[in-house]
Amino acid sequence: MQIQVRINEEGALRNQRYAFTNRFTLVSELLQNARRAGATCIEIHYDAATQVLSVHDDGCGLEDFQKLLSFHESGWDAATAAEERPFGVGFSKCLYAATRCVVTSGGQRVDIDTEAALARALITVEQVPECEAINGTRVELHGVDLPDLGTRVEELCLGFPVAVLFNGQPLKRPLAEGHLATQASPIGAVHLAGTLDGKYSHETMVFLQGFCVLKPTYCLRDELNVVHLDSRQFMARLPDRDKLIDEDVQRKRIDAELKACWRNTLEIARTRLSPERFVETYYSVMRGWGQLDLLNDMDVLPTELCDAIVGYPIQDDHGSRDFVQQVAAAPTRSEIESGAVRLVALDCVGDDNGARWMLARSKGYLVFDWIGLHHDHWAQRHVRFLEEERAHVEAVEERVRTALEGRWVWPDVILCEAVRIRVGKDEAVIIDDGVCHDGTLYIPAGENTGTPVQQLSSFTDEHDQFLDADCDADRDALADLIRRLRSVDPVQTLDSLLQDLRLGKYPLLHGKIFQLTVGVGASPGHSIELLEADGLAVSAESGGLHARS
Asked: What pTM was estimated for this model as a whole?
């Protein structure tokens, strides 16, 4: 027994109507046919009330009307067939979408009842009077429901190479190859966003034979790359032809060619611009498209890589980093190589590297984004990685050591005259700002704001929410603790402590006189006695109180 592939023609004709996923495919197919016929202008008219669509082109016209009803047979000449590999289904969508199709080309016309045609009835091609003959081809479809066609056809023709008029108004077609600055590539014509100003994009819209086959989810049209593919190398899927065959593989190929086009563009720009202008304009492009090696033999550094520490370093999980500022001008190669300018690499501020940040700030080091350069760049040899060096922190003339009982943080606090930080051979003495090191806050004489708690913690919970109320409360608590510990007036210090206790809300204490002695008993120790009105202590036998702690 032998078997072979057979086709049920009636079933194929019946079921093909369900193959198309987009009702607007019939418009794109008619536009495609007109383009292949060499049209220089295509006019589309649609009357929503009567549901009549007319597409008229000035191409070479149609000689053999049988081609309209021959499915999967390309009626194009050998050159077009080799160039574009048409599938031969261009007119079939019209038969399924319309109730009646009237096609006029030159001096011939055919009026097709689509139901009869799909039933394989014979259709007569008629000669038209000379006065009704037309140049090119006009296809008139009746009974087609195309809501919002005006908007859809404008989007459909964004990159179409032939002029198109819709209801008498020309469509702009801003992404057509003839409207863009493009460069040739092995895959087709490529337009890169940002070639003049460096405002590059990774978003790309890809066209094949004038229609989009790849597009980003969202991107402004003047901020994307555009590729018009070579139709000899790429094919779109049947029947709608809005997706590439092997899209995942082809997308990688397109991205690789975009990168190569950027390489070519950058190499040309490098020869035409000064090093300073080249780096200023195209550094972000080189970083974004993996071309950083172009900087390796240039003495100019991008300013984006160098930050000065201009404020008090704190933990900031949300990236504002107000304590650093990009330098106005990058340091020169000679400044770096001579040691006049020191570049350091630092991780984000945390409770384990606050001292390193404070030393770098004190020394005037620049925080350098070394990842933003190629690994063979000359500057990499001069970057000091402070995170890899041990930090030593000590209190100078320690005054008092205690603990802060905050809402969010409970650190040890050391009040001192100054804080000495050593990393390697470098040393800095800090007198104006607190330093967080290994969970302890070192508070020198010039610090009174409470801000060091933000070097200890980011005050961000497990849901990535900033706890601003807790941050404010702990900052105020530290400031108050510092003030109290530094106070030289014992009455004012005790009064400030008692105010927080709000003793007046306890009736038992109203009108009572107490004697408080601090420094007695276990540290931090105190004793308290209830006194009579004459200042004598009440004895235990008379029901008095005498407590020590």
From this structure: 0.78
> If we measure between CA atoms, which residue out of 338, 359, 356 comes closest to residue 348?
356
* Beta-strand pair 225-229/204-208: parallel
**Phi, psi dihedral angles at 292 (to 5 degrees):** -65, -20
Return per-residue pLDDT of the chain as tens, 549 residues: 876 666 656 655 555 554 555 678 889 889 988 998 899 999 999 999 999 999 999 998 888 888 888 775 555 455 554 455 444 445 778 888 889 999 999 999 999 998 888 888 899 999 989 888 899 999 999 999 999 998 999 999 999 999 999 999 999 999 999 999 999 999 999 999 999 999 999 999 999 999 999 998 876 667 899 999 998 899 887 666 788 989 999 999 999 999 999 999 999 999 999 999 999 999 999 999 999 999 999 999 999 999 999 999 999 877 778 999 999 999 999 999 999 999 999 999 998 999 999 999 999 999 999 999 999 999 999 999 999 999 999 999 999 999 999 999 999 999 999 999 999 999 999 999 999 999 999 999 999 999 999 999 999 999 999 999 999 999 999 999 999 888 767 777 777 677 767 888 888 888 888 888 887 665 667 888 888 766 566 644 333 445 554
3-state secondary structure 451-467: CCHHHHCCCECCCCCEC
The DSSP call for residue 398 is: E
Concatenate the DSSP letters of all residues of 229-264 into one string.
Answer: E-TTT--BPTTT--SBTTHHHHHHHHHHHHHHHHHH
Domains delineated in the chain: 9-170 (3.30.565.10), 177-272 (no CATH), 303-483 (no CATH), 502-548 (no CATH)
How would you class 239 by CB atoms within 10 Å of its CB: exposed for 0-12, middle for 13-18, buried for 19 or more? middle
Within 13 Å and on the Cβ side, how many CA atoms surround 101? 27
Q: Which amino acid is at 163?
A: A
Q: How far apart are the C-alpha atoms of 158 and 190, rounded to whole Å?
A: 15
**CB burial string 55-65: b at 16+ within 10 A, e below:** bbbbbbbbeeb
How would you class 476 by CB atoms within 10 Å of its CB: exposed for 0-12, middle for 13-18, buried for 19 or more? middle
Reduced to 3 states, what is the DSSP secondary structure of residue 171? Answer: coil
